[in-house]
Amino acid sequence: MKKRVLMFLEIGLIVLGLTACGTTSRQLTATDLPNASKYEPTLFFHGWGSSYRAEEQMAHALVNAGLTKTIMRATVSKQGKVSLSGQFREGDYHPIVEVDFKDSRQSNPRQWGRWAKATIVKLQQRYHTKKFNAVGHSMGNMAIMYELLDNTPGLPKMQKQVDIAGHFNGILGMNDAPNRMKLYSNGKPKKMQADYKTLLRLRKTYPKNQIAVLNIYGDKNDGSHSDGSVSNASSKSLRYLVSERAKSYQERKIVGPRAQHSKLHDNVQVDRLLIQFLR
């Protein structure tokens, strides 16, 4: 009899323990966070064929610089469903959200824009997010640009936009070649690629005096005036699309071997620019 009683007591304690674990792991929502509207997350968008791992150095650089203590992740499935892991922390108003697109070899930039929008909507639903920052590398920049092109009313407002190695008007070896693309003094390409022509609408719809823009591009200093994958002219063509409506617009060039396209997201100079700009 005593053995039975002890067994039931042990089972009861195990159940209570599991219940307690479930409670502590519950995701915080806006109702759990005082001043929920004050939280302004920074979303990182990786490039084509990549993953959230490409965002890790930049994210941890911001943490080490004291901008935040929170890194969470938004995983976007091939079907566009967003799941969040980690959570905002009370009083840490500038959390980082590493976005991970599972279908990262999708070549349609409009689809990337839909996924970016789905991520923003998810954060709005859970945390009542009203403002956010966005950092893109390579194709991640197109996710940002096409999300802005969608111009859906009622979504959180972007405050700062960082574009790293953006191929706004073409990619070397596909629709561009070293030193071929030319820009007018205002950044307008003398010859526009199809995606760029689509993005031209932003010249009239980009949020007026709302977003501060930092455009970072790499020059390997090998005579190609490119980061090896994207010409500097293609990256700098962003200016014509947004500068007249942006709150501010600045360009920064990274030079040398570490300025190669896929190394820019692991570049300490880029980290410093991000810290300074997002602080």
Automatic annotation (TrEMBL):
InterPro entries: AB_hydrolase_fold, DUF915_hydro-like. The keyword Iron does not apply. The keyword Signal applies. Residues 1-20 form the signal peptide. Pfam families: DUF915. Keywords: Hydrolase, Signal. GO terms for molecular function: hydrolase activity. It comes from the Bacteria. This is Alpha/beta hydrolase. It comes from Levilactobacillus fujinensis.
